[in-house]
Amino acid sequence: MIEVTRLNDTKLIINADLIEKVEESPDTVITLTSGNKVIVKESRQEVRNLVILYKKEIFSREL
C-alpha cells in the first residue's frame, strides 16, 4: 500500500498492486485495474518511487 495526497490535501492509501497506469496531464492521474481514477498531488515519478519502495519492503520481508 502507498500513501498519496488528493488535490484537496486529504491522504489516501492505495493498493500498489491494483495500479494499472499513472499519467501526468498535467495533474497526476492514477488509474486502477477497477477503472477508478484518482488525481493526486504527487508526480508520476514520485508515485513510481513509492511503488518501488513498497515492493522492496514487501520482498525483503519474504527472505
Automatic annotation (TrEMBL):
Keywords, ordered alphabetically: Cell projection, Cilium, Flagellum
Pfam families: FlbD
InterPro entries associated with the record: SwrD-like (IPR009384)
The protein's name in its UniProt record: Flagellar FlbD family protein
Organism: Variimorphobacter saccharofermentans
